[in-house]
Amino acid sequence: MIRYSLKRLLTAIPVLWIAITVCFFVLRLAPGGPFDGERPLPQTVKDNLAAHYNLDKPLVSQYLIYVGNVAKGDLGPSFITEDFTVSEQIAIGLPYTLKLGGLAFVFSIIVGVSAGIYGALNRNALSDYALASLILAGLVVPNFLVAPVFQLIFGLKLEWFPVGGWGDGSVRFLILPISVLSLPHIARISRLMRGSMIEALNTNFIRTARSKGLSDRAIVWRHALRPALTPIVSYLGPAASYLLTGSLVVESIFGIPGIGRYFISAALNRDYGMVLGTVIFYMVLIMILNLLVDIFYSWLDPRVRTQ
Amino acid sequence: MTLKRILTVSDLHVSFDTDDGIVNAVRGVNCHLDAGECLGIVGESGSGKSQTFLAAMGLLSRNGTASGKIDFGGRNILDMTKAELNAVRGSRISMIFQDPLTALTPHMRIGDQMAEVLGAHKKLHGAEALEVCRRWLDRVQIPEARRRLRQYPHELSGGMRQRVMIAMAMLCEPDLLVADEPTTALDVTIQAEILDIMDTLRQEHGTAIALITHDMGVVARMCDRIQVMRDGEYVEDGTVDEIFYRPKHEYTRMLLDAVPRIEIGSANKDRGTPDVIYDKSSDFLRIDDIRVDFKINRGLLSPPLNLRAIDGVSFNLMQGETLGIVGESGSGKSTLARAVLQLIPPSSGSVTWLGSPLNDIDKNALKSKRRDLQIVFQDPLASLNPSNTVGASIMEPLKVFEKHLTHAQMQQRVYEIMERVGLNPALNNRYPHELSGGQNQRVGIARATITKPKLIICDEAVSSLDVSIRAQIIKLLMDLQRDFQLSFIFISHDLSVVWEISHRILVLYLGTIVELTDTARLFGNPQHPYTKQLISAVPLPDPDIEKKRQRIKLKGELSSALDPRAKMRFLPSRLGLVESGYVPKLEERFPGHFVAEHDAIEDLLV
């Protein structure tokens, strides 16, 4: 397993390199640069800045310098936010995003999987339909609408939770943003889970398990759950990367200082260093998550291991 | 002596609420089972033979309802609550199913799956439960039982998995074992072993067995009494002798007549030599020493493994002849067929068709020859394009090979061939899913014969069909052969079918020929131990012969083609030569009777 993981991570390196290369050159194709603001800077200042950030060198040597730095683990300076390197900036916002996203991720799985199993076991009952419509609502209503509505109801009217902010990072502050963030994921996971659970319950080996006189609980937990989780796992990789890289919308509505906002502002400001840095961070995260997903697969289905 | 009555089914009805309305699968069935007896329930697909016992196990699908009475130990099973039912099933009645691969939970170890039965019914857990499981695995003759407990189902062979199923069903020593087509998915030699095990368990433990099957041979061998079922009703019941020797109902007689009756040990076989005179000056089809290799990739860093699926096979075929190819799963039958048609390019050797080579030739040249070389596949529904009408599928070869015809002319040809294969031309605009299995196979045959080919390969072409339909299709193929002077290569795992249709038979084992001769001689005087074992394992639809017959059991199991020693299974004395790639040589023991080298059969018996 360790050998397999190492091998997978090694094959990720060329993929990462291609992504950096494409991003690097595409960014430079876009008009404007980091120092083209509304108030033009004097030419000498611009030249000095360009020289400081190596922007005066030919594109290819800029590229080589950058790739060389990345290989050494240095994501370089941010071009806009002075005094901070890209790594430092990500490190400042990341803990907030990680906590929020991680909890939302776990919450989505627990609620989504449970709702899906409930729906599958009570399929076509009234409660199943009620749950299905609730889930559909979670899927179609965008979170920039859900967030203020939740703030209104639970924050202002009922005064259960604070309307926004991070506070001391306690659960009270987190409940609303986590709910808003996980709602669409709960919806997708529970729909997937309901379908795959129904499919799993119709297999021959479940018929065998029933013929052995096992209780419904043993049949669901021991026999049906693992095969039913397989399609969920393929959804978890993308879902986790989405949650852990932060949602601009949710973070700004609730005033949480995570990294979501860096992504957008960096791209708009042509902050080359920041954009490339976040891209690299994002890609490494996705690769690690995909690796975890594959490892989880082999736990779910022993047949994968022998192949 | 009166035996203890185990199960009494009275006036059982089972119906299903489907999108097409209520379907009555079982309509007023009565039957009973005594301790230690084996009741056979025979019928064709859709007759409702499984549903009776699924109802007795409380295993009907969600849309099914059962009414009537199933009396087990004084209680009506249909009135039981789920908890009461769970106390009975798995403990006093247990069931084994057709497909042992899908019937076992793939992610659980064998030991865990078995032990949970003991946990649920006898409150036995942990090492104690595993020890009971191990003893049962020993009893169903699974080698290295202790190791198997820690394995997963996919790591076992099909026969081994079915033994696990049986052991699991027997853990609580039930009064009744329901076996739903327990050997249908297995090879004949494995089938024979599984049936033996079931029979022994019945004698040793007094377990009653309800054997649901379509195979009259299996019934003849195993059962005391038989119920014949059609369209949800029992048309006839009686003892084995009554059903086989004095059948009263017309349907029973039809079923019995439809089964090919191999006459083992007799040289009488009416197929004789092909009707067409064989012109020895020009070869019709000649296969010379072909080999087919598959590369098995094992990831980035390990070199791919070489699997030799066909290892030096040579034979020839005359015009108008049917060559049967038999072998168990994994023997390379289908690969051989595809290699002959160049659907898989052979790695070496040559295929000569009417005197000119078929392999290593230009794509267009090969395409023009394909007109004469057709194939009919096993699963008729899956091998037809579901979005094409039946007529369009049949017409397709004409559009490729006879482009000069107008559409009206092609349609005319389609109608003619449909009529010839026994399909109503009115079905022309139907889709495959609207037709029955037998009708779809006729479509497959019509498609293969519309260009008037010279050779048709039938790859398990009748294996998925019911016996009565199978008999009709075989008759159709033989008629077409006579009318169009067709040659057939007829591939099947079913010896009785091959016996009926073939002039000559080739027995394949792990990609090599072990015996090749005409049908009468192969069954009358088999030479190779493997052939003898295969023939002795075929269940014959005749209880008198079947119950007295001695079975030949050889050492070892059909193992993987990846294991070079497996090829020397019948020549263990030369096992030392494996390293040098030695393959048993085919020798002509009698004129026209080829046998691969083997050791004396006495040395190979278990």
Topology summary:
The complex is a heterodimer of chains A (307) and B (606).
Chain A (H helix, E strand, L loop, with lengths): L1 H28 L13 H10 L6 H13 L14 H36 L4 H15 L2 H15 L13 H31 L2 H8 L4 H29 L3 H6 L6 H9 L3 H29 L1 H5 L1
Helix pairs in contact in A: 1-12, 4-5, 4-7, 4-9, 5-7, 6-7, 7-9, 8-9, 9-12, 11-12
Chain B lengths: L4 E14 L2 E14 L3 E5 L6 H8 L7 E9 L2 E2 L5 H7 L4 E4 L13 H13 L3 H14 L5 H4 L9 H13 L5 E5 L7 H18 L2 E6 L2 H7 L2 E6 L2 E7 H6 L4 H9 L26 E12 L8 E13 L4 E5 L6 H8 L7 E6 L2 E2 L5 H8 L2 E4 L13 H12 L5 H14 L16 H13 L5 E5 L7 H18 L2 E6 L2 H7 L2 E6 L2 E7 H6 L4 H9 L5 H6 L37 E5 L2 E4 L4 H4 L2
Summary?
The complex is a heterodimer of chains A (307) and B (606). With 307 residues, chain A is mainly α.
Q: Could you describe the 3D structure shown?
A:
- The complex is a heterodimer of chains A (307) and B (606).
- With 307 residues, chain A is mainly α.
- Chain A has one domain (86-306): MetI-like fold, CATH 1.10.3720.10.
- Chain A has 13 helices and no strands.
- In chain A, helix 5 (126-140) packs across helix 7 (171-201), helix 7 (171-201) crosses helix 9 (216-244) and helix 11 crosses helix 12.
- Chain A starts with a helix and ends with a helix.
- Chain B has 606 residues and is an alpha/beta fold.
- Chain B folds into two domains: 34-63 and 73-258, 3-Layer(aba) Sandwich (Rossmann fold), CATH 3.40.50; 285-372 and 453-604, P-loop containing nucleotide triphosphate hydrolases (Rossmann fold, 3-Layer(aba) Sandwich), CATH 3.40.50.300.
- In chain B, 34% of the residues lie in helices and 24% in strands.
- Chain B is built from 21 helices and 22 strands.
- In chain B, the strands form four sheets. An eight-stranded mixed sheet of chain B has the order 16-17-18-13-19-20-22-21, sandwiched between helices.
- In chain B, helix 3 crosses helix 4 (126-139).
- The two termini of chain B are 38 Å apart.
- Residues 275-279 of chain B have low confidence and may be disordered.
- At the A-B interface, helix 8, helix 9 and helix 13 of A face helix 2 and helix 3 of B.
